């Protein structure tokens, strides 16, 4: 049997909800299930306003419009992220300014943000990689002192937290993803979380094609009209119906994923001690959601060989981002602040292991195959991989040397 990298998980009520949406006679956006998802997100994440979108990309685009970015304005962000993080701001004429990531959490290096600020800087956009929080206290302090807005790209981070606060509830705006590769899914889908109360009313208008339609349905105006720029960012009620079932079971989904994550982590511990790989780091004070389990190998050649040999064993493993600062569009539309050694190194070393509910029955097979490949003579050195892992990406901050046992 081949073992895929990802397999979408059904909790059991998704198709029932979809049939119910049809029976209700409402399949376009903002029906009963959409309102249910909004209420769930506002209650469990703590956002002032949640608005479902057809993708996380759409939520980020809405954030860029809401912040009134003008051509030439700058947005500080990591290069080690998905293209949507940058694209949303480039579409408004803004310039992404890439700074390097931390070698421990693979999140934006908060120590590099303030030196990158210029007179054109308007926004700091953070990405909570693998559902692990950025150093938000420091980042929010920088933003406050410089009068900047903070956007959380929390695409991977539902059910994760930072010092007891849910990710997505800390910045002025945040974006979630419900893509089929995420923990809680709707096939495609996302949400904009609005924490700045001054942005709520306009967010509703932008999402509704620039109209005040939401006010009309609340009885606040007797007709609705075009009042702002915007687009059709709503998902259909079918998507919301599917998502509502997933959100209801979100805590149990997270618990099962965490069990798989911790099995990987325990398996990798002795391999890390032998210098064969490096494991993820979870800072104290952060809880994560087991969005992914990755290992860091010694370089591009070793990473490529590992993925190919796992594929030959019938197991799909994948690498992740090509850094945006080295991409053709990144070279045209953005700039970097300072060197990017950790971003460049990590992008060559990282391998994502399969992680999906149902993998429990196959996880031993995955781990045994991986360990055999890493130990093979002649593939990763005369004595296997042992001892060859580079120190380039090792923890540099004692705060992050401690693994959290929480969530």
TrEMBL record:
InterPro entries: DegT/StrS_aminotransferase, PyrdxlP-dep_Trfase, PyrdxlP-dep_Trfase_major, WecE-like. GO terms for molecular function: dTDP-4-amino-4,6-dideoxygalactose transaminase activity. Coiled coil: none annotated. Keywords: Aminotransferase, Pyridoxal phosphate, Transferase. It holds the Pfam family DegT_DnrJ_EryC1. It comes from the Bacteria. CDD domains: AHBA_syn. The keyword Transferase applies. Its EC number is 2.6.1.59. Belongs to the DegT/DnrJ/EryC1 family. This is dTDP-4-amino-4,6-dideoxygalactose transaminase.
